[in-house]
Amino acid sequence: MTSRHTLAAPVTASGIALHAGVTVTMTLAPAPAGQGVVFVRADQNGARIPARYDLVSETRLGTVLEQDGVRVGVVEHLMAAVAGAGVDDLTVTLDGPEPPILDGDALSFLTLIQKAGLKSQNVPREAIAILKPVTVTQKDASASLSPAASASYDFEIEFSAAAIGRQTFTLDFSSPENFAALIAPARTFGFLKELEGLHAMNLARGASLANTLALDDSGLVNPGLLRFPDEFVRHKILDAIGDMALAGAPLLARFQGVRSGHAVNNALLRALFADPSAFRRVPMPG
Questions:
Q1: What angle (nearest 5°) sits at the alpha carbon of residue 56, between those of residues 124 and 95?
Q2: Which residues contact 146 (CB under 8 A, 6 or more apart)?
Q3: Tell me: the pLDDT tens digits for 64-91?
Q4: Which among 3, 18, 40, 207 counts the fewest CB atoms within 10 Å?
Q5: Contact predicate 99/75, CB 8 Å
Q6: pTM, two decimal places
Q7: Which residues are catalytic?
């Protein structure tokens, strides 16, 4: 039997929020078997927001969850680390509107989870098996889930920026070591020419040359931050893993993305669960 897992102990970190630009303290804590991942806004009377695809209210420059008028933003990096570590039940308490961006990757969160350690819940772990292909397309972006014995991610991006160009990457997500070494360290990225407009919308106020790969017309502004030559597509896979984690259980599927972002990823889960013939809940393979 593959069991559900939670943390063995609480762990806390503080840092700047990517969009709000304020300091946020985050505590990751053990949770009861079957709870799933739940965000708690300590600064909003302890409001609880489950990490579910159907509670996604915004996908502009990050995945935002909302319930009863209370929101938590930019959850994808943390959710990718949670999925990569095999954590099923977790309480995430925040005293602000987003988890801290930390190093702009998922590795920062994965390191915190590893520091806390995992504890078996002695309750069977469930997976979602994909029974037939499901695809969504929006303009020149698409994403699909296809039947597979284990999880994998194929991704393709193409940007006019010479520093990115066309990049592809394939990840076998059935191996936690693969995620930790190949995807978790990939940082988020953005374009300096968009920064003024984002600031006008109260976005990206916590982005810096220390946590974000920044590009301008001449190329990468902070090349010393680059961890992989194809880090941009790897980060897109990181985002997709975080977005797919909002399914509520691991997906036994092959994910294929072409220029897809948070909006397409969320639309894919909504399309999947709108068709009961496309999936089945099964015991997680050992």
A1: 85
A2: 130, 133, 253, 254, 256
A3: 999 999 999 999 999 999 999 999 999 9
A4: 3
A5: yes
A6: 0.96
A7: 262
pLDDT tens-digit map of 121-162: 999 999 999 999 999 999 999 999 999 999 999 999 999 888
Q: Are strands 126-130 and 279-283 parallel, antiparallel or unpaired?
A: antiparallel
Q: Count CB-CB contacts under 10 A for residue 70.
A: 18
Given the structure tokens 């994403």, which residue do they identify?
143
Main-chain dihedrals φ then ψ at residue 261, nearest 5 degrees: -130, -160
Contact present, 267 and 136 (Cβ < 8 Å): yes
For 12, the token pair is 């806390």
* Structural domains of the chain in order of their starting residue, each with its CATH number: 3-125 (3.30.230.20), 127-283 (3.30.1700.10)
Q: Which helix (H) or strand (E) holds 126?
A: strand 126-130
φ/ψ of residue 112, rounded to 5: -65, -45
